[in-house]
Design goal:
With 296 residues, the protein is an alpha+beta fold. The chain has 12 helices and 9 strands.
Length: 296
């Protein structure tokens, strides 16, 4: 058996196919898979508890070497709530929104962009860094505004979105994005980007929402997409603390859905006065966005 066969065999191919079949994988989920593959390939029983993290990393390294020419990579990140390390197969170079366009309509992609704008602009202010959106708020973005619709209709021959989605279509799209591993939905009904999405959309998010304009420079605004000072991963939820200096901040400061205003208060729009195209779609008399924090 050649050295290349040792480094890449049918077991490695099956391992890669398993990654392609799911949005994420943990070490604990990989152990039974690798045990079965090693048992079949080496014809000697291997138990899940025999699989080490080094074995797992070895398979990931071999897979990454093979898929790198196709701009694919298996990356990992920690889940911001459970702190479990998650691994996912992601596209390392091309625009991930364009990737989604291969399986979704122009209207669905346009709706997704409006939802992301709401997450990272409308509901991401210096006072309330929510970076999540409720079902009601997302569904209010199903239709294009009059000005947006006029622009879209003017360029519709070039493949732009038309009038938007029907309510039922928007609900189905949100459900699909959860099933495909792009969104997570919390017990309170908030949608936020999943760990897999944060890994794959990282470059696009920073380029899209951290583009500082003249107004931002004058007001000295912080970047909309924030990264952990220690691990450099994007932070979209959990309490705010400093992993470097260990400074204890108050228990009232949060990032994510727990940062949403309570008691009927509404987050200030980052662009003030509703200049954001999506901000004016979400009414200021909307009831409280979150309930009590007893379940956290």
């Amino acid at each position: 058996m050649s050295e290349d066969d040792e480094q890449w065999n049918d077991g490695h191919r099956a391992f890669l196919q398993a990654f392609m079949a799911r949005s994420t994988m943990t070490l604990d989920e990989a152990k039974p898979l690798l045990a079965a593959l090693l048992t079949a390939y080496e014809r000697k029983e291997t138990l899940p508890e025999d699989i080490t993290e080094a074995d797992f990393n070895s398979y990931i390294s071999a897979a990454n070497t093979r898929i790198s020419p196709f701009d694919l990579e298996i990356r990992s990140t920690f889940h911001q709530i459970t702190r479990t390390r998650l691994y996912a197969l992601v596209n390392s170079t091309s625009d991930p929104i364009i990737q989604l366009a291969t399986v979704h309509t122009a209207e669905e992609i346009s709706f997704l962009k409006r939802v992301l704008d709401a997450m990272f602009e409308t509901f991401n202010t210096s006072r309330h860094e929510v970076m999540a959106i409720t079902s009601m708020q997302a569904l209010s973005l199903s239709k294009l505004r009059d000005t947006e619709a006029a622009t879209a209709n003017g360029a519709e021959t070039q493949g732009s979105a038309g009038q938007g989605l029907k309510m039922a279509e928007a609900e189905k799209m949100l459900k699909t994005l959860v099933e495909e591993g792009w969104f997570e939905k919390s017990r309170r009904g908030f949608y936020s980007l999943s760990p897999r999405a944060l890994m794959e959309l990282r470059g696009w998010l920073i380029e899209t929402y951290n583009d500082v304009d003249e107004e931002d420079e004058e007001e000295d605004r912080a970047p909309r997409i924030k990264q952990c000072a220690a691990c450099k991963e994007i932070v979209t939820m959990r309490s705010r603390d400093c992993p470097l200096c260990k400074t204890k901040w108050t228990g009232d400061d949060f990032v994510g859905e727990r940062a949403a205003p309570k008691n009927g208060q509404q987050a200030k729009r980052r662009n003030g006065g509703g200049s954001n195209a999506n901000a004016s779609r979400i009414t200021t008399d909307e009831p409280s966005l979150v309930e009590d924090d007893d379940d956290h």
